[in-house]
Every structure is written in C-alpha cells, then in structure tokens.
Amino acid sequence: MENPFLLSGYRSAEYFCDRVEETENTINALMNRRNITLFSVRRMGKTGLIRHIIEQLEEQQVHCFMFDIYATTNTQELIDLLGSGILGKADSLPRRIADKVKEFILSFRPRITYDQLSGAPAVEFYLQAEQPELTLTQILSYLESHETKVIIAIDEFQQINNYPETNLEAILRTHIQKLNNINFIFSGSETDMLVSMFNDAKRPFYQSTQMLHLKPIENVHYSEFIARWMERGGKSISEEALNQLLKLTRTHTYYVQMLCNKLFSTELSEIGIQEVNDMLVTILKENEYVYFNYRHILSKMQWDLLKAIAKDGDVQSFNSKDFLTRHKLGAASSVNRALESLDAKDMVSQFFDENGQYYRINDVFLEKWLARL
Known about the structure:
By secondary structure, the chain is of the alpha/beta class. It has 16 helices and eleven strands. The chain folds into three domains: about 200 residues, 3-Layer(aba) Sandwich (Rossmann fold); about 70 residues, Orthogonal Bundle (Helicase, Ruva Protein, domain 3), CATH 1.10.8; about 80 residues, Orthogonal Bundle (Arc Repressor Mutant, subunit A), CATH 1.10.10.10.
C-alpha cells in the first residue's frame, strides 16, 4: 500500500484531512464574486487546500489556474509565468477562448530549457513586454471573455513586494476591480507582509478581499484521519499515542504528516506512545547536521535566544527579568535585536490569541531538538 501521509503535493480528497469549513467558505466567497486572501505560517497546508478547492471547483466546470510566484523576481517574470500557465491549459478551454489564447501565442517567444537532473528538454514561452500593464490587460481579457467562471490562485503573493517595479500593486488592483468573471485566491506564508498588503489603508489592495487565516486542524479530525489510514495499512495506533503525536507536532500539518509518514513506513503493527517518541528522536537525529549548522549561521545571541524560546515554548515577554536571568541572555536591547533578526530569517513568528501576543519557533522539529540541548 502506498504511504497515505503526503509530505508535498495533492493526490485527492481521500488523502486530504478535514478543512471542510475552510473549503466551503472559500468556494462560497469565490462563487459570489469575493476574492480570498489565505494566510498562515509555512507548512500549514495552504497549497494543498488550494488544490483541494480547485479540484472541487473544476467538478463544477469552473476553470482554474494556479501560479506559485515565489521564484519570480520582477514583473516580466510574473508575466512569463502567467502567460505560460494559461497557454499550457489552452487545450482544455472551450474553443472560443482557446482560439483567442492561441492567437496570443504569436506574442510569445519560445525558450528551450533542460532539466538539470534528467537532461530532458522543455519549451517555455515568455513575453518581451515593453508595456507590462498592457500585457496583463491582454492576459486577463482573454480569461474574462470565458463563458464560465475563472479562478486564479496566486501563491506567495507577497513576493511582488520584492519586485523592483514599485507600482505593480496599484496596476493589479486597477485591473482586478474591473473584472466580472474572474476571482482570485491570494495566499502566502510571510504573514505580516501579506496581511499588511490587504489591511493597510495606504495600500492599493486595502480591504479588497475576504481574509482567511489557516489554523491547525482540530485534534479530533486529525486523530480520525490518522487512525483510519493506519488501520488500512494494517496498523493500530492507540488513543494515547495519537494525543502524544499531535502534542509533539503542535498539530502543524507538515510535522504531523512527516511523523505519520515515518511511522507508517515501519513494520510496526501496533503504535503506542513509546513508538511515537522513538520515531521523533530518529527524525531529530536525521536532521542534526542541519540544526548544528544554524549555530554557525546565527550570532551567539540569536542562537542563545532560539534555545531559550525552545525551552520555554511560547514566549510572551522577552524583556522580563525572569526570562533574561534564567537563560543568561544579558541586556534586553540585545535580545530585542536578536529577535528581530530571527523573525526576519523566518525562524520565529509572532502569534496572537485571547491572552495576547507571543512568539514561537516555526520549525517544530528544530524546537524539539533545541529543547534537548
């Protein structure tokens, strides 16, 4: 039996855990002409959720396009990606719009690339656009003329903040607000930057979308999902082991899937707390070289602060005398500078709940490893 605990990609609804409410809310928004901004920390399952939503929308004959723009560095590369993606699905579109899109091929220039591992050739299309705004208008107008609804999902949307062109947000907002047949899913993992784009009154996209924060899946749903697939694989996992597994991983999607994937791959027929704990130790040892390397990348203060956060768990006050003294961190000003640096490196993130704000380490396994030092 193929391992059902996926670490990347999307297979089908059967291998997708829960997210029923998020799926229904997103589809409802899109079908009622509301754009969605989906955000969370990394590895919480945003991309899988978007693909799950797209699968359901395509069953309703909605045409969907998904673009990950994380690797793009400027508007030209964004246009290349959009154009190539649309041309790549042209054959699946109704003839009226497909013919219009294929006419647009004349505006593209082919570029032959080679896979670095296999050496297999591939053809990409790119535009030498003297007027990017005009090119974006053309691309969107082709899709807007589609007789059925079109959804465009743009993953890591905050990346456009790093483009040298400073007016792209305003250009995109101007085009998007004119569309009647196209709606968007914007998503990203750099939460502060993405939320600012849609909630800062001075920004073009201010309050233009419905915001959806992706939280961890509820324990009861994840427990049922894990137990069901373990049983199909000829394994049983105790309730105590399930609770321990979800506690150790903070029910953070990627880390749950990794621990379950590793357990499923063993010859164990019965999984208890000890087996879960032992597998976590195995994973930490496998990653030990990478974790030790952080000591050379980070300054001593950053490294010491990271260890302190790992040992305390969620930290609300970094300037308290108790926190500074217990972890021998020195001056509060130095700790604050180290915290800013760790945040910029995406090693820690700020969270909010009913008790206020707190920080935690993003990599759950790194946190567990540091706490053992």
